[in-house]
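User: Could you write out the 3D structure of this protein bound to pyridoxal-5'-phosphate? I've included everything you need below.
Assistant: Certainly. Input first, then the structure.
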Amino acid sequence: MQSRRQLLKTITTLSIGGLSQSVFAGSAGNQLTGLTDLLHTTTSPDEVAKDEAFWKKVAAYYQKGTDTINLEQGYWGKMALPVEAEYIRLTKKINQEMSWYARKYWAEDFKQVKHTVAAALGAEVNEIALTRNATESFVNLITQYKGLQKQDAVLWADVDYPSFQRMMQWLADEHSVEGIELSLPASGNKQDYIDAYANIFEKHPNLKLMLLTHTSNQHGLTLPVKEIAALAKSKGIDVICDCAQSWGLVNFQMDDLGVDWAVFNLHKWIGSPVGVGALYMRTGTLDRVSPFPGEAEGNESVQNRVHIATSDFASFLAVPDAIAFHFAIGGENKAERLRYLRSRWVSVANKLPNIEVLGAQDQDCASGMGGFRIKGQTTKEQVSALQQRLENEFAVFTVVRKDLASGCNIRVTPQVFTTPDEIDTFANALIAIDKAL
Ligand SMILES: Cc1ncc(COP(=O)(O)O)c(C=O)c1O
């Protein structure tokens, strides 16, 4: 992986150098100059994670909501103020220039944005297509996938994004192949999850395609994708990796995952405006997925696997600023900080007799997102009542997730501007709830 400084330099060069051809001369990248104060060069991410002065500086780049302690930051990502300002400026400019801009400059600028995304992911530009969200990327992959025969099976897991699970079931039905849902352990360590996948691969030698979620939207579990994908590859199973919740929450580049196909959005943890996704297909793997209906044949670039049509121009154009801001904080610094905030409440919760922490039992599988419930209380009604209690009695906002095989849970997601004091307020709420049981 390139160092943070190298990456930031690449991205700054791409964004400033690229879009300056257009009417938006000098737009993307202009915000970067003020960000140098965020760059920490001498300390390790481990140390940065606990450096409150650093995170105070980061927090000053965001406008926080005021009403509650919002620990539901997994829905979509708040734009940093420089990104928000650029997005507003671009929106106005697009509305002013309209087709004159779009007809003359958009195609080149769009290509340049794609270069920036590819550089950030450590991918070749022909391996990246931009989409409007992760769902669009995923739907295109599964509906255009050519590999299924009658005797095959497709696999998904309870930790996968619920609508993607339903789409995998649809795919199985559509092709009259076997659809298999794997129930992963409610909590576990890296080896537990590798073993669970190894066992299901052994049990179903007819598996042909699987969905593998890097970071689960249910409880933040981050699977050892590289190991599981390598095992799948050795069995001839195609893997679609869902990185919608992981990119930016966890720090990685494509080589760290070792998957052929992956779907992303940038509007969660990369902090772009809403409406930007990406599809990754490794060079040499396009022949198993047809071009988008009516698009030109050819396996040179993944771009002909999607057709995004008229989209939010300004959202895409603000992406280089969002990526630059992300790398100014530092991908690993951010991931470590968020894991630190999770472990701050999880270490308390693990000692409480009536609280069950879900997902990662070790740091290898942890992200900043976490999940918990009261032991034995797994129904939607019970967990919703707990969410309401947190909100109404303790002013802590969280969300109920309903799709784990073990039952419902509360998802807890801080952001880079969440303070340790806010996490402690939440942990104290857990202590009070546990004591009252
Ligand atoms: C794990 C996971 N996959 C997929 C998605 C869908 O992302 P999008 O809304 O960008 O399509 C989400 C969104 O919450 C998610 O958390």
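Residues 25-30 have pLDDT under 50 and may be disordered.
User: Perfect, thank you.
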